[in-house]
Write a structure and sequence with these properties.
63% helix; alpha/beta; single chain; elongated
Length: 342
């Protein structure tokens, strides 16, 4: 028994990936969670019409942890149009005898919730029985968490599952000698990668279509925009996941090593997929989202589902996914050189 335990310990110590997953991965993930979910020190910005608001209320608002900007609010629609054009303003606070007290936000978000909380605190300091109506440009108070974050799960599930399938399957191809025998033929490296991408991509596309249709028509996930654009983005994201899995599999020697890379390749992407506002992340770490494919897919799907965007609004994200797929294709083609030089 002792000899067996010693052998397991020696094997684990000699496996750098296992050591990284046991010792480094938890620290990396905990650090990300701390940075993303900890106190960001973010101060929300609230727009008010100082000419239409009592001085005591303005003073109470200025005493809160808020940035106050002067905005002329003619009506609720004017406030909504202002929020569409000024994303640096988290909420607009209006006060009128006819419409009452209102907080208008762009969409349900952490930043908006913090702004609303500070406003309500200011109101309570003057009148504890004061009631505030909350409305959004996009979304509503009665929508479920699934409705507000469904676009993230569409992107995550599709990408992660396809990555696992393609990554492990390609490792088995290599460990079984299939890839080496294939490379002994006149076939080019690029054709090998393209063939695997098309083969697994077919199932990835079917999965993407199934997930979208099931979410929309069975789970009743709401979407403002055209479902066709969602399908296109999901398909591009699935193809990118196939190529991403192929990249990881080329540098892994077994299925276990593919799993060991998940904490370093997939889990960080979860945090930058849209679950947390990127501008709340300290030290400008939100910019890391631009090197992660899930960000482009989730942002495009959100644009279509939440804002009703079309091609001219999401084309940048589509180009980002295509560019990412082409880059992974080139990396995979070059990486095959270690198995055969043409």
């Amino acid at each position: 028994m002792i000899h067996l335990a010693k052998r397991v310990i020696r094997q684990t110590i000699n496996d750098k990936r296992s050591i990284m997953m046991i010792l480094v991965a938890p620290l990396l993930i905990l650090t990300l969670v701390y940075l993303l979910l900890g106190d960001s020190g973010y101060v929300p910005t609230v727009g008010i019409d100082k000419n239409a608001m009592p001085g005591s209320l303005i003073t109470a608002l200025e005493e809160q942890d808020l940035n106050i900007v002067d905005v002329t609010n003619n009506d609720a629609q004017h406030a909504k149009n202002y929020l569409k054009d000024h994303h640096d303003v988290d909420a607009i606070f209006t006060l009128s005898q006819s419409l009452g007290t209102n907080i208008i936000m762009y969409e349900p978000s952490t930043k908006g919730s913090k702004a609303a909380s500070e406003i309500q605190t200011a109101m309570a300091s003057l009148n504890r029985s004061a009631k505030v109506n909350i409305s959004y440009v996009y979304g509503s108070q009665d929508q479920t968490t699934f409705d507000s974050l469904g676009y993230v799960f569409l992107a995550l599930f599709s990408f992660f599952l396809v990555f696992i399938i393609s990554g492990m399957a390609l490792v088995r191809e290599r460990s079984g000698g299939t890839l080496e025998r294939l490379l002994m033929t006149p076939i080019k490296r690029g054709q090998v990668i393209l063939g695997y991408t098309i083969g697994y991509g077919v199932f990835a596309v079917i999965q993407a279509i199934l997930i979208v249709l099931y979410s929309m028509f069975v789970l009743q996930l709401s979407s403002v925009g055209n479902i066709g654009w969602i399908l296109l983005v999901m398909i591009l994201l699935a193809v990118t996941a196939v190529l991403f899995g192929a990249t990881i599999s080329i540098f892994a020697n077994s299925e276990l090593q593919v799993v060991q890379m998940i904490p370093f390749t997939i889990i960080p992407q979860v945090f930058f997929s849209g679950l947390i506002p990127l501008d709340l992340i300290p030290y400008h770490l939100g910019n890391l989202s631009y090197i992660m494919p899930i960000y482009y897919g989730a942002a495009a799907i959100k644009g279509v589902m939440v804002y009703g965007d079309g091609f001219f609004q999401i084309w940048g994200y589509i180009i980002g996914l295509i560019a990412y797929a082409l880059l992974l294709y080139l990396i995979n083609t070059q990486a095959l050189k270690k198995f055969r030089k043409l």
